[in-house]
């Protein structure tokens, strides 16, 4: 990747599109947003692949995030909470939590930051009637 300087940030041209990065919301995505998106996106992708392999079907999956930053240490990210809300029929919390643990172990972004950022995962199920 090649990042080019632009007004108040940098820009990279990727196959999917142009990405503007800036510490100012008016000029691009903020670096911490991209970090959280990277971790959430990777975690959700791995989790969904595992559910698919186990033939666990669901109607919808939403991933909510909460970020704790430390203003005394360059506003670094200390903790990211990933909360999965899964809608479906006959969902087993036990199976879902086991699969979430496997996803945690196999997500490259989570593993990349595990010694510096606490990643906390939880889930809730919304059971749809048969």
Summary of the model, kept short:
This is Putative OsmC-like protein. This protein has helices spanning 31-53, 93-106, 108-113, and strands at residues 3-6, 9-14, 17-21, 60-70, 76-88, 118-127.
Strand order of the biggest β-sheet: 1-2-3
How many separate domains make up the residues?
Answer: 1
Shape type: elongated
- By secondary-structure content and strand pairing, the structural class works out as alpha+beta
How far is it from the N-terminal to the C-terminal residue, by CA? 48 Å
CATH H-level homologous superfamily name: K homology (KH) domain
Listing every helix as H and every strand as E from the N terminus to the C terminus, the arrangement reads EEEHEEHHE
Largest sheet: 3 strands, antiparallel
CATH topology: GMP Synthetase, Chain A, domain 3
Protein name: Putative OsmC-like protein
Pfam family, one: OsmC
Key terms:
3 helices; GMP Synthetase, Chain A, domain 3; Putative OsmC-like protein; 130 residues; OsmC/Ohrsf; 3-stranded mixed β-sheet; single chain; KH_dom-like_a/b; alpha+beta; 3-stranded antiparallel β-sheet
Describe the protein's architecture and organization.
The protein has 130 residues and is an alpha+beta fold. Strand 1 (3-6) and strand 2 (9-14) form a beta hairpin. Helix content is 33%, strand content 38%. It has three helices and six strands; from the N terminus they run βββαββααβ. It has one domain: K homology (KH) domain (GMP Synthetase, Chain A, domain 3), CATH 3.30.300.20. It has helices at 31-53, 93-106, 108-113, and strands at residues 3-6, 9-14, 17-21, 60-70, 76-88, 118-127. The longest helix has 23 residues, at 31-53. This is Putative OsmC-like protein.
């Amino acid at each position: 990747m090649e990042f080019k300087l632009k007004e108040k940030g940098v820009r990279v041209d990727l196959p999917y599109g142009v990405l503007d990065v800036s510490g100012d919301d008016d000029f691009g995505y903020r670096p911490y947003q991209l970090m959280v998106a990277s971790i959430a996106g990777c975690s959700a992708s791995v989790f969904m692949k595992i559910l698919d392999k186990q033939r666990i079907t669901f109607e919808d999956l939403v991933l909510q995030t909460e970020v704790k930053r430390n203003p005394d240490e360059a506003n670094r990210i200390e903790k990211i909470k990933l909360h999965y809300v899964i809608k479906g029929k006959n969902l087993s919390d036990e199976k879902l939590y086991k699969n979430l643990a496997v996803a945690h172990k196999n997500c490259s972004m989570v593993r990349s930051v595990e010694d510096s950022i606490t990643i906390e995962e939880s889930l809730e199920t919304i059971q749809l009637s048969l």
